[in-house]
Amino acid sequence: MRTTLSIDDALLSRAKKRAADRGVTLGAFLDDALRAYLVEKPETAAVVDLPSFEAGGVLPGVDVSSNRALYDLLDEHELASP
Length: 82
Known about the structure:
Layout: H1 9-22, H2 26-38, H3 67-80
Helix pairs in contact: 1-2
């Protein structure tokens, strides 16, 4: 379909250069550019409000940088649980 548009001179010049660099006509380049611009964007994921806990922390004497100490603590907790 033919139509007449008013396009900013600098913008048209850039589009012509980009079309020539890609080896396509200006019309084909503008078709692709409009398709890309008009494609429906997927909805962004909803923001989830995660709970935060201010109490607690590391028990005194537990070395969180030691896997062995953490495993030992888990074993102690399992033995104490009913």
